[in-house]
Amino acid sequence: MKITASIILSLQLASVSSASCSSSNFLTSRSKAFCNHPLKFRGGQQDDAIDDTPSGSYHGNYIAPQGEQPKAAAIVEVKNPPSTAVAPSTTAAAPLASATSKSSKLSNLQERTGPAVLMLGATFLLLKYTGEKGLIGLILLMQLGLYSESTGVVEAFQAKKGSSIDKIKSYPVMKWWWFMTAMIFSGRDLIMQHTSLTGDQMNLMNFCMSAASLVGAVIQLAMLSGPGTEDLYREYLGKLACCHFSLLFLVGQSSFWIKTVQEYGLGWVLFPAFLVIVNDTMAYVFGVLMGKHKLIPKLSPKKTVEGFVGAGLSTVAIASPLVKRCIGGDIPNLGRHAIILAVYASLVSPFGGFLASAVKRAHGAKDFGALIPGHGGVVDRFDCQVVTAPFVYLYLKNFYNVES
Q1: How far apart (Å, rounded) are the C-alpha atoms in residues 49 and 29?
Q2: What confidence tier does 40 reach under pLDDT thresholds 50, 70, 90?
Q3: What would you measure as the largest C-alpha separation in the chain, in angstroms?
Q4: Helices 93-160 & 171-186, crossing angle to 10 degrees?
Q5: Number of helices and strands (H, E) in the chain?
């Protein structure tokens, strides 16, 4: 009788699942116990051993003797049945994805080319008719854009998180006060050329402006009260740090362009700028055509080792003919100076772009702005240029002057 019942039970369970009753993924603990102890469960409850008499009837998962009212059968559950779906193969899709990615990059390159040509043409016309004064004016406007965009990205990110910085009414005033203080300090030579102020007077003016910003900021923070004041302190100090970093990294370094054009002429500003443009363009081209290995995937996923190396070689190769075009004249070791600047523009300047990418990624921004179609904002276009400006001036000051 037990053997016959076991066969019947096995057939019943096979209709629910193709797995054996020992598979723990398909049967509940009750069905496992039933498998280990056959014919001792009635209605899902353990009972006394069943008689071996041939009389009785089968009711799902137990045997009821004759004359006994059948009880409700226990429910056998099947948990998480194995999926029979076959995962699609990615082998065939890989070439298609690669071709689509390359097509997208080429389309992006075409989109970027038009605005870049227009921007270079406008700059050429400006410099042709205004010369050094026009370049200095352009640099001052760029510094305004650099500061506004870099601080704006952080402010927009905090606004999405529910920023309460609006409670500090003086913040916008302090933000632009710091900008004016930095501009006066970095442009002190330019101011003294067009005014009667001396260097000592300029130093005193800068110190007084810095002291006023310090006192004003502390007084404003002291006037805050109520719940969440500590969070507001942290938010304000974080934006203060952002503003001062923008002033140091962007405005401060770009001020060396003004010093370079005043002391060495327009050519020594344009030549390094063209080097960075060539390096950035060739890095994109080599990355599209040959890029397979990511350079810094966590910060700038689109940059590749092949693009970085190819851009460096291209920049060094074009340095000597380009410097003769921009500087001209019979200058000793001009080619050597050009190659040194090209090496710097290839190895160090791109890291300004990597840092800018980290800032955008940290604050969920695709670009710093939308001023230039296909390129983003001012920071997106000049993040590598500002890293080059101080090195060019200091290199010329220490080596070019001596040989000249």
Answers
A1: 20
A2: very low
A3: 123
A4: 110
A5: 15, 6
Cα gap 283→311, rounded to integer Å: 5
The token pair that represents 291 in the structure block? 């890029």
Residue written as token pair 């160090």:
348
Residues contacting residue 232 through CB under 8 Å, at least 6 positions apart: 164, 165, 167, 168, 224
Structure tokens belonging to residue 4? 């016959």
How does pLDDT run across 283-316, given as a tens digit for each residue? 989 998 988 899 988 888 888 999 999 999 999 9
Contact 146, 379 (CB under 8 A): yes
Can you tell me the distance from the alpha carbon of 65 to that of 71, in angstroms, rounded to the nearest whole number?
11
Among all chains, which residue has been given the structure tokens 């990355």? Answer: 287
Helices (H), 223-327: 229-246, 253-264, 267-290, 305-326
Alpha carbon distance 246, 385 (integer Å): 15
In this structure, what token pair is assigned to residue 260? 């370079």
Q: Rounded to whole angstroms, how far apart are CA atoms 181 and 184?
A: 5
- Distance (Å, rounded) from C-alpha 61 to C-alpha 73? 6
pLDDT at residue 300, rounded to an integer: 84
